Structure prediction request, 187 residues.
Amino acid sequence: MLFAMRKIIAAFNMTLDGTCDHTSGTPDADLHQHYTDLMLSSDALLYGRITYGLMEYWKPSVYQPSGIQSMDDFAKGIDQVRKIVFSNTLKEVDWASAELANANLEEVVQNLKKEQGKPLLICSRSLIIQLLNLELIDELQLCIHPMVEGKGLEFFEKIHRRIYFNLLRTQVFKSGIVMLCYGMKKD
Prediction:
């Protein structure tokens, strides 16, 4: 019996000028809800060491809610979902729902992709770039914040060749953030 391979979704925030620093942008309740829903519809979140460290910000909010519903829901969501962390330097992770990857990125993603289940969500710029270069991304979701940062880390740096996408859907949030969802064209 044939079954569809698990979908690999890359999701990230960036500004109009392509900056993807986590301190840039204009997150609001709608955006937090979007990412909460996306996380909860995934079997696992894949992080690099740096992004995983940034996401640990949400751990205390599970036990000490902020009182802001969208942020508290996001914190509960990220706490629940399995996290696989890719790092050459970390020896352990202390989040109960997190684990260190036991092989390289390509091997882990290829193996997880073959399993049945909900999509995998790639949440780290470095992993997204590597997987784009390996042509292992099925769907790219970019939330574009309506601002120009003027400096910072460029999202699509280090892409090895031209990559084509098909626009699958868009969503405009009240704040002016636009989510563009693309499917990667495969040769």
Notes: Residues 125 and 155 are 7 Å apart (CA to CA). The helical segments are 29-40, 49-55, 59-63, 69-80, 105-114, 125-133.
